[in-house]
Design goal:
Elements: E1 6-10, H1 18-34, E2 39-43, H2 46-54, E3 62-66, H3 83-88, E4 93-96, H4 99-102, H5 108-120, E5 124-129, H6 139-151, E6 163-167, H7 183-201, H8 203-208, E7 211-214, H9 222-226, E8 232-235, H10 242-254
Parallel strand pairs: 1-2, 1-8, 2-3, 3-4, 4-5, 5-6, 6-7, 7-8
Bound molecules: 2-phosphoglycolic acid (PGA).
2-phosphoglycolic acid (PGA) binds near residues 10, 214 and 216.
Length: about 260
């Protein structure tokens, strides 16, 4: 069966202008149109969501998501944006629990509330988990397990069609492509995540669940990461650049 990889782009707080945002988005769209087997989910800063979502019209493999949402529906929460507001301006996905937000105090309990608010609004959550560092005693595995359990607590098997897990080891984010996680280790982690999920949800659902890898993915490592038991990639820097996003999508399209 031909692969249908998902390439999710986390633009973080980039680019600086609407014109640049449009240019990167259109480069992504052109690449998707050229490569029929790839799906792209572009997650720009909030301010660009509405405009870019209008540029997805008529495309089945191109989506716009946000990088965060708040768990309440409305009210006195200065600076926050609700899942409902995101859905209203055309977002279909939302990244929840990115390590850069966890570094600002987001916990698995908060992630859980945000997932539930996204589910209520029909958004697909891209739920980020990942250890800060690896220890030889394997404590990082318990951390991943508990992160999954707490984040998905109360999420039903039927809701899983609206969940994508993004495994992003914090130590591999923002580095060079060479320092990204090794495919063998990623393969093991993907199996570990599926095993953990198969307890509450059963093996068939756990194995259907899309898992993305994120952390210093660039055009030269796309193929090896996609060959390591995951359905796609969550790409940071390389997704927010006209040239490299096209290269990443092209590499994903030809990955075996
Ligand atoms: P990076 O970021 O690809 O720039 O390492 C990935 C991420 O933080 O999602």
């Amino acid at each position: 069966m031909k692969r249908k990889p998902i390439i999710a782009g986390n633009w973080k707080m980039n680019p600086g202008t609407r014109d640049e945002a449009r240019a990167i988005f259109l480069a992504t769209r052109r690449a998707i149109e050229t490569h029929e087997n790839v799906t792209a989910i572009v997650c720009p800063p909030f301010v660009y969501v509405r405009e870019l979502a209008t540029l997805t019209k008529g495309r089945r493999r191109l989506f716009v998501g946000a990088q965060n949402c708040f768990f309440e529906t409305h009210g006195a929460y200065t600076g926050e944006v609700s899942a409902g507001q995101l859905a209203d301006v055309g977002a279909s996905h939302v990244i929840i629990g990115h390590s850069e937000r966890r570094a600002m105090g987001e916990t698995d309990e908060i992630v859980n509330k945000k997932i539930k608010s996204a589910l209520r609004e029909g958004l697909v959550s891209i739920v980020c988990i990942g250890e800060k560092e690896r220890d030889s005693d394997g404590h990082y595995l318990s951390l991943i397990r508990s992160s999954l359990e707490v984040s998905l607590s109360g999420v039903s098997g039927a809701d899983l069609s609206k969940i994508i897990i993004a495994y992003e080891p914090v130590w591999a984010i923002g580095k060079s492509e060479r320092e990204a996680m090794k495919p063998h280790d990623l393969h093991e982690m993907a199996i570990f995540i599926r095993k953990t999920l198969s307890k509450p949800y059963g093996t068939p659902l756990a194995f259907k669940m899309p898992i993305l890898y994120g952390g210093s993915v660039g055009p030269s490592t796309v193929a090896e990461h996609l060959g390591a038991g995951v359905e796609g990639l969550l790409v940071g820097r390389a997704s927010a650049d006209v040239k490299s996003v096209a290269e990443v999508i092209e590499a994903a399209a030809s990955a075996k």
